[in-house]
């Protein structure tokens, strides 16, 4: 792919097929390169104790390819050896009332639909176990969560149930556990070979056929909405609903229910049951898919958005504005590292206390609490996810502050 800036601030793309690599889902070689970024932090949610340490964060390159056989988008030069997923990787959203309400609704639905009362539940990639604890609290269940980023094993009672969190990957080493239900949230986006991942899960559960709940970032919505800053290194897979459900069919899962959820459909979900292999490459599937316009134009939009924000930042600097970014997760990290923000944006606000006092990988801004703003008195607050705009504005108002709001 050539990536040359034109005079109108768009990117001139000459898509090329990739003869050396296959699609991780369907193994097709019919791929078209659609977007690239160089030198981005590979661990967007890793915490850094100082600006100097943050500047040493590992970086990598992104080259997204669209598979014209199955519609899957993936980073075809992703190097899983660069990503650590070690203790200190902090991606929790549960400090948001908006997110907590959503998770509670999901947990209540799953408990009611699948009779999750006094059952054994396994969560793969559980983080701090907030969702697993919710399922166990509301249903009196026994939960076992697996995540290599955990600092150590944790066993604790939760309401009428209990939770055990294991700092490890879920593998055949734990085949003795007999789950009645399995959940996996915000993990499939980060797995280089999602087919192998799902097949391995089937192997671990064996002849048992528990219902499973998977939830991921809705990448094709982000393409459609032109969410410029939603591309992150460790997120190597970019699904739409069709490619997401086809993945499960290809791996021999029966789909009970699937769709979009959270806010304006920011996530995709699927309730599935392990079953038999499914041939989805039957007659008529050999045709090549056209590249969706929103996907084809994403690189151009990213270039235009970058130019717009560089102009804004220059204006802020000229006017001596005090600018903060609200949200230190993936979108915030991508935004801050794509632009020369260090001279004008010094602080990033986050309500997650585990992130406060730390620094953004690469760009180095310090992460602060909302209360810090009463001292700093910002003129401009840049919101990284519009889903939380109302919540953020309410918190700023409670602090007795007023500012101009912009959304990236």
Q: Can you walk through the features of this model?
A:
Mean pLDDT is 91; it is low at 1-19. The longest helix has 21 residues, at 298-318. The strands form four sheets. An eight-stranded mixed β-sheet has the order 8-9-7-6-10-11-14-13, sandwiched between helices. The protein is an alpha/beta fold. Helix 2 (97-114) crosses helix 3. It is 27% helix and 25% strand. It is globular, with a radius of gyration of 22 Å.
Features:
single chain, 408 residues, alpha/beta, eight-stranded mixed sheet, five-stranded parallel sheet, 27% helix
Q: Give the number of DSSP strands.
A: 19
List the uncertain runs.
1-19
Q: What order do the strands of the largest sheet run in, or round the barrel if closed? A: 8-9-7-6-10-11-14-13
- Cα-atom Rg, whole angstroms? 22 Å
Helical percentage: 25-40%
User: Quick one: overall form?
Assistant: globular
Described by its quaternary structure, the protein is single chain
**Helical run tally:** 11
* Main β sheet profile: 8 strands, mixed
Structural class: alpha/beta
Strand proportion: 15-25%
What distance separates the N and C termini? 27 Å
Mean pLDDT: 91
Please write the string of helix (H) and strand (E) elements: EEEHEEHEHEEEEHEHEHEEHHEHEEHEHE
SSE blueprint:
Elements lengths: L2 E3 L5 E3 L17 E11 L9 H5 L3 E9 L5 E3 L21 H18 L5 E5 L5 H10 L2 E5 L7 E5 L2 E6 L14 E5 L8 H12 L5 E7 L1 H6 L12 E2 L2 H10 L2 E9 L5 E8 L18 H4 L1 H21 L4 E4 L3 H9 L6 E5 L16 E3 L4 H4 L3 E4 L5 H10 L5 E4 L1
Helix pairs in contact: 2-3
């Amino acid at each position: 792919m050539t990536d040359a800036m034109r005079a109108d601030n768009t990117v001139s793309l000459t898509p090329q097929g990739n003869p050396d690599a296959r699609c991780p889902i369907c193994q097709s070689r019919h791929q078209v390169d659609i977007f690239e970024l160089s030198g981005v932090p590979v661990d967007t949610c890793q915490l850094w104790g100082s600006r100097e340490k943050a500047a040493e964060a590992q970086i990598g390159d992104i080259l997204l390819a669209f598979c014209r056989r199955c519609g899957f988008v993936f980073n075809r030069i992703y190097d899983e050896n660069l990503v650590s997923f070690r203790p200190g990787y902090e991606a929790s959203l549960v400090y948001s009332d908006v997110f907590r309400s959503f998770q509670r609704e999901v947990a209540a639905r799953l408990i009611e639909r699948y009779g999750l009362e006094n059952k054994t539940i396994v969560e793969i990639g559980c983080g701090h176990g907030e969702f697993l604890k919710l399922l166990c609290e509301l249903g009196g269940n026994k939960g076992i969560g697996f995540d290599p980023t955990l600092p150590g094993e944790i066993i604790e009672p939760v309401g009428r149930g209990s939770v055990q969190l294991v700092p490890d990957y879920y593998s055949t080493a734990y085949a003795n556990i007999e789950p009645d239900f399995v959940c996996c949230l915000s993990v499939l986006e980060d797995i280089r070979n999602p087919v192998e991942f799902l097949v391995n899960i089937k192997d671990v559960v064996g002849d048992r056929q528990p219902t499973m709940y998977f939830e991921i970032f809705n990448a094709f919505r982000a393409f459609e909405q032109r969410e410029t800053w939603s591309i992150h290194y460790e997120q190597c897979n970019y699904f739409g609903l069709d490619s997401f459900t086809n993945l499960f069919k290809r791996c021999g899962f029966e789909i009970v229910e699937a769709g979009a959820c959270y806010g304006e459909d920011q996530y995709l979900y699927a309730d599935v049951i392990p079953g038999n292999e499914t041939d989805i490459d039957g007659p008529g599937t050999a045709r090549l898919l056209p590249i969706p316009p929103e996907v084809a134009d994403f690189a151009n939009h990213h270039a235009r958005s970058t130019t717009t924000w560089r102009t804004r930042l220059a204006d802020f600097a000229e006017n001596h504005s005090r600018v903060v970014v609200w949200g230190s997760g993936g979108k915030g990290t991508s935004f801050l590292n794509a632009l020369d923000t260090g001279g004008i944006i010094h602080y990033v606000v986050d309500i997650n206390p585990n992130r406060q006092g730390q620094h953004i990988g690469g760009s180095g801004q310090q992460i602060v609490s909302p209360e810090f703003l009463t001292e700093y008195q910002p003129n401009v607050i840049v919101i990284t996810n519009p889903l939380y705009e109302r919540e953020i504005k309410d918190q700023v108002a409670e602090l007795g502050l007023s500012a101009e709001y912009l959304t990236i």
